[in-house]
């Protein structure tokens, strides 16, 4: 039997940054994301005759590090199902450019979905979200489409994502600006740990998230894109400030990231609806609406002619 599942990546508007339990991927705070229509992962799984696993990414054998991460996840699922069978995992990342933006969010959501079918586990979406979380924290949110909230919970069984609005009707539009698709130097896991342990501002982070989350839920309800953008940008900068204030400090921003961020207040003063959010890398996702997108595209192109631009819209959950 072969089973195939597709999941889409998501962008956090209220960020997940810090693990209370690194092994179970239990976060200190809730987070809120938008599932996107681009950057999807399609994963097929099937049982192999022996006990050995095989992992292929875009038709090639996985790197040793990624292979191990997938095998750890397979072990977890085998344990639950009292199985020792080897599994073939074939995963394909649909990325619009060669920028290497493969995401662990869509990757582990798709793998969880495919294994759910292979082992005929009949997990509910909530249980699937818990399982995907064990592969990668942000994967818990990619089970659902549209706006999604990951509630931090108290343990393995209540730390899962829930849909807020699976089919958003607002004309929210994102422009992905890729300066540099190279792998980041500090992994998310490492970065979170350093921020949690050493930033003097980390104790304030849960309060910031709580406030931003309440306001974001209201903004989504009102379909107020300017308010959504403003909150996402401010929450993103607060997350990155944890990294700048870690000891030793680190940052995912490059000169180009800063350059673009610094232009935003100037463009907004001219009446352009545009806000930014940045994850654990140098690239920026601009938040705007359908009507303003051509203006934003032109502005970015004029300043960063080398950057790869991709338009993204709200996307679906697991299929
Ligand atoms: C997020 N990020 O909320 C945050 C914001 C990056 C910046 O979740 O260690 O791959 O697998 O739980 O989910 C990226 O980290 O981390 C991430 P793990 P993950 O989207």
Automatic annotation (TrEMBL):
Domain Diphosphomevalonate decarboxylase-like N-terminal: residue ranges: 7-161
EC class name: lyase
E.C. number(s) listed in UniProt: 4.1.1.33
Domain Mvd1 C-terminal: 177-308
Record's keyword terms, sorted: ATP-binding, Lipid biosynthesis, Lipid metabolism, Lyase, Nucleotide-binding
Source domain of life: Bacteria
Pfam families: MDD_C (PF18376), MVD-like_N (PF22700)
GO molecular function: ATP binding; diphosphomevalonate decarboxylase activity
Keyword ATP-binding: yes
A biological process from GO: isopentenyl diphosphate biosynthetic process, mevalonate pathway
GO cellular component entries: cytosol
Family in the record: Belongs to the diphosphomevalonate decarboxylase family.
PANTHER family, per the entry: DIPHOSPHOMEVALONATE DECARBOXYLASE
Name listed for the protein in its UniProt record: diphosphomevalonate decarboxylase
Gene source species: Bombilactobacillus apium
């Amino acid at each position: 039997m072969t089973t195939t599942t597709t999941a889409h990546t998501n962008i956090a508007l209220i960020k997940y940054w810090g693990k209370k339990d690194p092994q179970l991927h239990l976060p200190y705070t809730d987070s809120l994301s938008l599932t996107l229509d681009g950057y999807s992962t399609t994963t097929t799984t099937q049982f192999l005759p022996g006990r050995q696993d095989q992992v292929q990414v875009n038709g090639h054998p996985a790197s040793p590090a990624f292979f191990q991460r997938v095998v750890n996840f397979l072990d977890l699922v085998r344990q639950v199902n009292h199985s020792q069978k080897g599994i073939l995992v074939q995963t394909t990342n649909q990325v619009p450019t060669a920028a290497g933006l493969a995401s662990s969010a869509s990757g582990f959501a798709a793998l969880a979905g495919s294994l759910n079918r292979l082992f005929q586990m009949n997990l509910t979406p909530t249980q699937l979200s818990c399982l995907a979380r064990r592969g990668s924290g942000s994967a818990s949110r990619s089970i659902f489409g549209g706006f999604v909230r990951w509630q931090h919970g108290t343990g393995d069984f209540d730390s899962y994502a829930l849909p807020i609005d699976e089919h958003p009707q607002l004309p929210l539009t994102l422009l992905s600006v890729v300066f540099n698709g190279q792998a980041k130097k500090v992994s998310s896991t490492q970065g979170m740990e350093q921020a949690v342990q050493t930033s003097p501002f980390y104790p304030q982070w849960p309060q910031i998230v709580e406030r931003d989350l309440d306001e974001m839920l209201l903004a989504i309800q009102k379909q107020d894109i300017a308010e959504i953008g403003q909150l996402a940008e401010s929450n993103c900068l607060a997350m990155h400030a944890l990294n700048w204030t870690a000891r030793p400090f680190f940052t995912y921003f490059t000169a180009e990231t800063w350059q673009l961020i610094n232009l935003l207040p100037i463009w907004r003063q001219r009446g352009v609806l545009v806000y930014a959010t940045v994850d654990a890398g140098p690239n920026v996702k601009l938040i705007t609406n359908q009507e303003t997108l051509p203006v934003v595209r032109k502005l970015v192109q004029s300043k960063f002619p080398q950057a790869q631009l991709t338009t993204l819209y709200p996307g679906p959950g697991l299929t």
